[in-house]
Amino acid sequence: MSTPSTRLPEGRYGRSSDQRADRTLKIVGGVLAVLLLGLVGWLGYHYVAQNEISAEVIGFDISDDAVKVHLEVHKDAGVDGYCTVRSQSEDGAEVGRADFRFDRDATRVDEVVTLRTTSPGTTAELVGCHTD
Q1: HEC letters along the chain
Q2: Is the pTM for the entire model greater than 0.85?
Q3: How many domains does the chain have?
Q4: Segment 72-95, tens digit of pLDDT
Q5: Is 61 in the same domain as 110?
Q6: What is the domain extent for residue 33?
């Protein structure tokens, strides 16, 4: 005795609706992926191209009530801005935070700034730089 088949005969009813739905979902997914990639690229370009001031910590020296931070700042000529630096204690608590202004016309500023702390700090971290 044979068991009845629940499949439709091949070629009799055309493409199944599941195949059409799969194709539609693939197309919609591809379009959304391209749009997302374009958005991420545009946001990345906008962030890099519009950032007129940036800096990095070259080194730092720690004392009981201050941290001397060596900053190298890169900016467009004529742009005024500031960079925020912070220090943390050994247990991770923030012991100092300050903004340091960079108003010179130079495009590269190499400066040592002093960050006053409430207790001995163990780090010097550049939080970020912003234009006025």
Answers
A1: CCCCCCCCCCCCCCCCHHHHHHHHHHHHHHHHHHHHHHHHHHHHHHHHHHCCEEEEEEEEEECCCEEEEEEEEEECCCCCEEEEEEEECCCCCEEEEEEEEECCCCCEEEEEEEEECCCCCCCCEEEEEEEC
A2: no
A3: 2
A4: 998 888 888 899 999 999 999 999
A5: yes
A6: 10-50
